[in-house]
Amino acid sequence: MNSLFVEKYRSKVLDEYVGNEQLKQIVSQYIAKNDIQNLLLYGTPGTGKTTLAKLIVNNIDCDFLYINASDERGIDTIRDKVQGFASSASFKSIKVIILDEADFLTIQAQASLRNIIETYSRTTRFILTCNYLERIIDPLQSRCQVLKITPPSKKEVAQHVAGILEQESINYELNDLVLVVNKHYPDVRKILNTCQVNTVDNTLKVDKTVLTGGYKDELLKELKSPSKTSFKNIRQILADSNLDDFEDVYRFLYDNLDEYTKDGVQQALIIIEIENYMYHANFRIDKEINVCALIASILKTIV
After folding, report:
1. CA end-to-end span of the chain
2. pLDDT score, position 2
3. Which residues of the chain carry a pLDDT beneath 50?
4. Edge-to-edge strand ranges of the sheet holding 94-100
5. 146-181: b (≥16 Cβ within 10 Å) or e
6. How far is the CA of 154 from the CAs of 15, 49, 83, 163, 184, in angstroms?
7. 221, 229, 230: which is closest to 252 by C-alpha?
8. Secondary structure (3-state) at 262
């Protein structure tokens, strides 16, 4: 039995899936027909794209191949693994290839995949998942039914997580659960991971100073009155906050532009930098270095 909540409680059937009802109706029709179109599932991280893709292939009569495109993103993967599987014989009615995080595929790999989808359309279906739809080339999008994964409401997420905590016999205060949900919504995966890592002796004990984002006031204070030590101070603030994901930092820097900039010119330059560093964060192993580079660029602009 998997000890990680996100895997242990991954939905196996459609009735268990916490998501948009209209989307579930579409998927239920595919399962009933035992066939699917080529699908492109997109939405924010942690909202159930991979879960839905795996749920589909586990509930229809098919052979399937799963590939995480963030690990295997080149054209060789498409030519060797994908084409190899698509061209192989099968005793099942169809074959399905899941390309998870397909927005990491190179342009050349996506172009090659386009031809494979057409060549093996009689026997093979594809399910692509991605966070950023704009990174998927138009010819691939046109070959798929594009479905946006709309996250469930905060209430539905809280009820879902509460049910898991109760199944695990974990005691919790409702206010603590609400704090975790508000902090990480709509990323259900992060909410579950946060609850699990903050469970001690079968009791959910959250660090309120971290979850409430106490570091943000200190960060803004440094940016509003920059000095020669501001960069060093901000690095220390980020290190002390124990952040493992910096998406909130990017959004905070954007939302509070008026607080630490002098004019519209500075704001325009910083917005461009925020967008640039957010994009490159997807390809960086150490996210903290990436966000510190952004801070250095912002300080250079406002000083």
Report:
1. 55
2. 58
3. 1
4. 62-68, 94-100, 124-130, 39-42, 145-148
5. ebebbbbeeeebbebbbebbeeeebebeeebbebbb
6. 19, 18, 41, 14, 10
7. 221
8. coil
Tell me what pLDDT residue 20 has: 82
Q: Report the b/e string of 53-64 with b at 16+ CB within 10 A.
A: bbbbbebbebbb
121: nearest Cα among 104, 144, 102: 144
Give φ, ψ of 214 to 5 degrees: -60, -25
Phi then psi dihedrals of residue 98, to 5 deg: -95, 120
DSSP 138: H
Location of structure tokens 């079968």: 202
Q: Is the peptide bond before 186 cis (omega within 30 degrees of 0)?
A: yes
Angle at 85 between CA 112 and CA 107, to 5 degrees: 20
Q: What is the pLDDT of residues 131-150, one digit of tens each?
A: 889 889 999 999 999 999 98
How far is it, in rounded angstroms, from Cα 20 to Cα 48?
10
* Tokens 């220390």 belong to residue: 236
